[in-house]
What we know:
The chain is mainly α. It has helices spanning 10-21, 27-40, 43-53, 60-75. It has one domain (5-75). It has 4 helices and no strands. Helix 2 (27-40) packs parallel to helix 4 and helix 3 runs antiparallel to helix 4 (60-75). It starts with 9 loop residues before the first helix and ends with a helix.
Amino acid sequence: MGKNNMAEHPSELKSVAAVATNLELPSKLRIDALEAIGRIGTHEALLALLDIAGNDKLIRQEREIAIKQAREIIKSGH
């Protein structure tokens, strides 16, 4: 329970994931998007984070945050 409403709308998850990988945006906004995906906490959010973590165009810090957020979803049992 306690999942963000975005979990009910896969297109919104895709939109936030698009922000997280948009290299034209400042890193701070991409990191905020990664953390928002982590808060969703669904299996789909986990897959999105793992996909983002594999994007070698992002800076290392962003990829590490994606992995950290994915790890938290796994720990929570989703």
